[in-house]
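Form 12-C: Joint structure prediction
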Amino acid sequence: MSISYTILVTIIALLILFLCLSWVFVSIKVANKEQKEETAERRYFLYTASYALGAVAVGAAAWPLIDQMNPDASVKALATTEVDISSIGLGKTITVLWRGKPIFIRRRTQEEISEAQNVNLNELKDPQKDEDRVKKSEWLVMTGVCTHLGCVPLGNKGDFGGWFCPCHGSHYDTSGRIRKGPAPTNLEIPKYEFVDNNTIKIG
Ligand code: FES
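Section 2 - Result
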């Protein structure tokens, strides 16, 4: 049983106790009143108590269903992943799996960075500045799924020194932007952040 469910059951028990005490209080109070008035007050209380108990009962019955819709700890853990990047050398790429997709993490050389930064945006099919695709120029983090039909592009290949998708011949540059071939858009940048200088959290 989850903690939240236990808390709810406790609240229900306290509410029932409160209603019982209220019932006793009202009973004593109306005992000194005229019969007509007493009947009306009791009826009013019974209606109120019934509605309240009904609402609580519905809430208690629905709670396990609502509670089970929350992702459990294992699902939450999959939603983000932390990657140690301390051992990635200059000019090297690692691939990690996140939500079933490959994520490329490349530590770019100065040459690759300069190439990516000096491209004329007018030449691009999906114009995007390199600085808008990275958080630190040395690190390129992107989803390794070709935006044409979903193949996984190969690194250090193609006409632009970046990635090449062999399925139908899409070429991506050192920023992962589409430069040639049928892919319509740049390789996607996932949500990520630097936890510290050696750790990236994806998701
Ligand atoms: S899937 Fe990559 S070019 Fe077609």
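Section 3 - Comments
The pocket of FE2/S2 (inorganic) cluster is lined by residues 146, 148-151, 165, 167-170, 181-183 (CB under 6 Å). Strands lie at 81-84, 93-98, 101-107, 139-143, 154-155, 161-165, 170-173, 178-180, 192-196, 199-202.
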